[in-house]
């Protein structure tokens, strides 16, 4: 049954181009041609190995709104969206300067108090470029609720 769904799932990533051709698009390639190439990709560990709880998703979406507003107000780049699955919420952000973007949002991330095992990737160019992995600081005190 699952194998019969594979062709349908792959169609979700097809994009019809004006020249009547098809192109497989990854999350990184779905952005416009004028988008910055450097990225900050935030991996927030969830409370379980799947998609986390509904309350947890709601907290993360509220956090995303704050990140997006902060990024816009500071002129750091763009917040592009998220993916949930395999025990992580993955948040995608792009900028001309990944380090400056990360430094501009680091306080907000720390204030969010991510679960242990959360981390961030700073990618210094297009997909395949040099990248740096940083474990996120875990604030002392109560963690965010996920019940």
Secondary-structure blueprint:
Layout: H1 2-11, E1 14-16, E2 22-24, E3 38-45, H2 54-74, E4 78-85, E5 88-95, H3 98-112, E6 119-123, E7 131-135
Antiparallel strand pairs: 1-2, 3-5, 3-6, 4-5, 6-7
Helix pairs in contact: 2-3
Task: Please give a quick description of this structure.
The chain is an alpha+beta fold and 147 residues long.
State the CATH architecture of the domain at 34-135: 2-Layer Sandwich
Number of helices: 3
Helix content: 25-40%
Low-confidence stretches: 5-35, 140-147
Shape descriptor:
globular
| SSE string | HEEEHEEHEE
Which features would summarize this protein structure in a list?
147 residues, Alpha-Beta Plaits, two-stranded antiparallel sheet, alpha+beta, single chain, disordered C terminus, 27% strand
Describe, in plain words, how this protein is organized in 3D.
Mean pLDDT is 78; it is low at 5-35 and 140-147. The protein has a domain at 34-135: 2-Layer Sandwich (Alpha-Beta Plaits). Helices cover 31% and strands 27% of the residues. The chain has helices at residues 2-11, 54-74, 98-112; strands spanning 14-16, 22-24, 38-45, 78-85, 88-95, 119-123, 131-135. The protein contains three helices and seven strands; from the N terminus they run αβββαββαββ. α2 crosses α3 (98-112). With 147 residues, the chain is of the alpha+beta class. The longest helix has 21 residues, at 54-74. The radius of gyration is 17 Å and the shape is globular.
């Amino acid at each position: 049954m699952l194998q019969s769904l594979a062709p349908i799932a792959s169609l979700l990533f097809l994009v019809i181009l004006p020249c009547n051709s098809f192109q497989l698009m990854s999350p990184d390639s779905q952005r416009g041609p004028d988008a910055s190439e450097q990225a900050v990709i935030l991996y927030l560990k969830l409370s379980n190995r799947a998609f986390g709880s509904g309350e947890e998703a709601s907290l993360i979406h509220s956090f995303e709104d704050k990140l997006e507003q902060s990024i816009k107000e500071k002129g750091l780049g763009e917040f592009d969206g998220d993916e949930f699955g395999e025990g992580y919420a993955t948040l995608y952000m792009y900028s001309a300067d990944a380090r400056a973007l990360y430094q501009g949002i680091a306080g907000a991330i720390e204030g969010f108090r991510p679960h242990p095992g959360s981390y961030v990737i700073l990618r210094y160019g297009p997909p395949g470029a040099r990248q740096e992995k940083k474990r996120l600081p875990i604030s002392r005190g109560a963690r965010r609720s996920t019940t």
